[in-house]
Write a structure and sequence with these properties.
420 residues; alpha/beta; TIM Barrel; nine-stranded mixed sheet; 21 strands; 28% helix; globular
Length: 420
């Protein structure tokens, strides 16, 4: 559920007409709903209300400070994959004791910064990383609490580019070597083993891959305890999908996911960490764009809008589906369009053969479910300005990232002295 619905014949963001925001801010722009963010957070927490539980928002899904702050105010932790994301989480008010640090290539500088902040856990992904973390922690007089990210070799049945739990993926320690590497870690200075971590992929719409991975991890935890390790934390990762195509896709609800997880791992008595990103913010955001031209091609009609692949790269990068609707309802006949942007690439296509009411230049459209991996993956390709991000709460809105000027973008370049 989200808070972008039709009222009085047009789409509202909570209590505000999207057309009103567009008139004030200009198009294209991202629009996020505070109430949707809070609802999604609370639904996920409710699914684990009877557990020792910590929800760590996967910051990579949307790094806007206002988004992170909204979740921090609800009590969220954070899952980060870089020093930059860690700094964002801390600045937004998430305490270090609620932050886990994931990622396959943590640098010495990043490790030192995280150790000095006193984060809750490092999710370690390799032996070289383990030894570097031990060395840096010892040099700083710190102890790094760790979980190893285990690669359970489970097919998440999602897009190949966002599948992370198969043996050929770059992530994690092979399950077959886990006991050996935990034993190695227990002997190292500056390291305290406390947990097990896994993450098998993103946008999963079936619970069975989760269940299979969790069952394998339960066996590992029991074996590790037999080996003498005190395993008190179980980080189950994220990855639960959202309904991009609401007519055909019905992912499991967080309550269903929670019941499945508790049934499999609940008896272990561990603190459970979940790292949702897309599920919290995906349907909490839309991309609003304006029609520039209607172009009749040879056997195809093109709806050319002012948003482009540099603003939302998912359709071009993943062949991802996003629902696209007209902002204002009307009784016009339906027409079939290829919906494309201005970038000088054929890949700058949001959708093909979509039925919409007949539209005209100046009409507004909404690309739904754009709150995750939208603005955060955007670029200035073709020297296009990054588009504003707007946060709505009830009948108010605020621009939480402004549209830069061309001077600001070009001013990031500097000329060598011999050109001056």
């Amino acid at each position: 559920m989200d808070h972008f619905g039709f009222k009085q014949g047009e789409i509202y963001a909570e209590d505000l007409p999207v057309s009103k925001i567009a008139a004030d801010v200009g198009t294209p722009f991202y629009c996020y709903s505070t109430e949707t963010l809070i609802r999604h957070y609370n639904v996920f927490c409710a699914a684990f209300s009877d557990q020792d539980f910590l929800l760590c928002y996967a910051v990579k899904a949307n790094t806007n400070q206002a988004i992170i702050k909204t979740l921090a105010q609800q009590g969220s932790g954070a899952d980060v994959v870089s020093e930059g994301e860690l700094r964002r989480a801390l600045q937004a008010g998430i305490p270090a004791r609620k932050i886990v640090y994931s990622g396959v290539a943590k640098t010495e500088q990043e490790m030192a910064f995280a150790l000095n902040q006193g984060i809750f856990q490092f999710n370690v992904e390799s032996q070289p990383e383990l030894h570097q973390l031990s060395r840096i922690a010892e040099s700083l007089g710190k102890t790094a609490a760790i979980a190893f990210r285990i690669n359970p070799d489970v097919d998440a049945k999602t897009h190949a580019k966002i599948s992370t739990g198969k043996s050929e993926n770059k992530f994690g320690i092979p399950l077959s070597r886990a006991r050996e590497i935990y034993a190695e870690a227990a002997k190292l200075p500056g390291i305290r083993v406390q947990g097990v971590d896994l993450h098998i992929g993103s946008q999963l719409t079936d619970l069975e891959p989760f269940a299979e991975a969790f069952r394998r991890i339960v066996t590992l935890v029991e074996d590790l305890r037999t080996d003498g390790h005190e395993i008190t934390v179980l980080d189950l990762g994220g990855g639960l999908g959202i309904p991009y195509d609401r007519a055909t896709t019905k992912p499991p609800l967080p309550t269903e996911y929670g019941e499945m997880a508790k049934k499999i791992v609940g008896h272990l008595g561990c603190k459970i960490i979940i790292e949702p990103g897309r599920l919290l913010v995906g349907n909490a955001g839309i991309l609003v764009s304006k029609v520039i031209y209607i172009k009749q091609g040879e056997g195809r009609k093109f709806l050319i809008i002012d948003a482009a692949m540099n603003d939302l790269v998912r359709p071009s990068m993943y062949d991802a589906y996003h629902e696209i609707v007209a902002v204002k309802q009307n009784d016009a006949n339906l027409s079939t369009y290829d919906i494309v942007g201005p970038v000088c690439e054929t890949g700058d296509t949001f959708a093909r053969d979509r039925e919409l009411p007949e539209l005209e230049s100046g009409d507004l459209v909404v690309i739904r479910s754009a709150g995750a991996y939208g603005a955060v993956m955007s670029s200035t390709y073709n020297t296009r300005r990054l588009i504003p991000e707007v946060l709505v709460k009830g009948g108010e809105y605020a621009i939480v990232r402004p549209r830069p000027s061309y001077e600001e973008i070009i001013g990031l370049d500097s000329l060598p002295t011999w050109m001056e």
